[in-house]
Design brief:
By secondary structure, this protein is an alpha/beta fold. It has 3 domains: 5-87, Arc Repressor Mutant, subunit A; 94-163 and 265-288, D-Maltodextrin-Binding Protein, domain 2 (3-Layer(aba) Sandwich), CATH 3.40.190.10; 165-263, 3-Layer(aba) Sandwich (D-Maltodextrin-Binding Protein, domain 2), CATH 3.40.190. It contains 10 helices and 13 strands. It has a 5-stranded mixed β-sheet with strand order 4-3-5-13-6. Strands 7, 10, 11 and 12 form a 4-stranded antiparallel β-sheet that branches. α1 packs across α3, α2 crosses α3 (31-45) and α5 packs across α10.
């Protein structure tokens, strides 16, 4: 059965304006057309919507129920028309973003909040991966944007630099390495190394790993931080996530002879052969003006 939205609109107008004649005026139709549309709805549904015995028509119980549901359908139809209008103005249906989990999510979430507040019709999907898993997922799912720390450059990809970030090699204060004044690679390899693993089949190579015989691969940097605080092992952490714990002494910087700090430049990457829609352009613009966490310790790296 196909419901006629014009008939539901006529039904709603008759009730709203108090009769077929008034409804016809507001709908800019002749009265006979309005009556015909209501009759057609009654025939389609097999129910009587109006009691027509008196001077004025009144809804039957079935009519009241149908009207309530009809108003929901009319509202939804209006929303569909609005969405279609937005897309005709170059809003893309979906925007797929893949973010490296080592990066702070606050700038991404702030951009999404701004787009939501502006009632952008685009459906935005944000997925978190790590290392080369970011690009692997970006390519596999035909993503639009990726915020990445490591990726294979290509003429088909356009990149721009994001604010630099620091990572520090740290350990919980109860761990043996926290008390060592100088730590060699051999010393590190006697302990459990903590890292974060991505879900991609293409594992790639993390040049910051120490190739320890014992290594725990965790699902996120927040989980890794908890493991560090418990003294499970040692590992690299983005400074913005452990800044307070390093200041309080809950975590300690490992005095590694090869260097206990490194800095990297994240990249915002999108496809050069596919123009971003309005939502993607707005997202990029918001990200450029976002406040990225830039904590500093009293003792700076060399």
């Amino acid at each position: 059965m196909k419901l006629d939205l014009n008939g539901l609109e006529a039904l709603e107008a008759v009730v709203r304006y108090g009769g077929f004649a008034r409804a016809a005026v507001h709908l800019h139709r002749v009265q006979s057309a309005v009556s015909h549309q209501v009759r057609k709805i009654e025939e389609q549904l097999g129910v009587t919507l109006f009691n027509r015995d008196g001077y004025r028509v009144h809804l039957t119980p079935a009519g009241e129920a149908i009207l309530a549901e009809g108003r929901r359908l009319l509202a939804q139809a209006e929303h569909v028309r609005w969405v279609a209008q937005q897309f005709s103005q170059e809003w893309e249906p979906t925007l797929s973003i893949v973010v490296d989990g080592i990066l702070p999510l606050d700038p991404t979430l702030a951009a999404m909040k701004a787009l939501a507040a502006a009632h952008v019709p685009t459906r935005i999907q944000v997925k978190v991966e790590f290392l080369r898993g970011v690009q692997s997922r970006f390519e596999k799912e035909n993503g639009d944007l990726m915020l990445v720390t490591d990726y294979a450059a290509s003429p088909y990809l356009h990149e721009e630099a994001l604010p630099t970030m620091d990572c520090v090699l740290c350990v919980g204060r109860s761990h043996e390495l926290a008390r060592a004044k100088s730590v060699s690679l051999a010393d590190l390899q006697e302990h459990v190394e903590l890292s974060v693993q991505h879900t991609s089949e293409e594992q790639g190579f993390d040049r910051h790993l120490f190739s320890c015989e014992r290594a725990f691969f965790l699902s996120s940097h927040h989980t890794k931080k908890e493991a560090l605080l418990m003294g499970v092992g040692f590992g690299w952490m983005p400074l913005y996530l452990v800044h307070n714990e390093l200041r309080s002494g809950a975590l300690r910087e490992v005095k590694y002879q090869g260097g206990s700090w490194y800095r990297f430049v994240p990249r915002l990457v999108h496809r050069a052969d596919r123009r971003l829609g309005r939502a993607g352009q707005e997202f990029v613009s918001l990200l450029r003006t976002s406040d990225w966490p830039q904590p500093r310790l009293l003792r700076r790296r060399p």
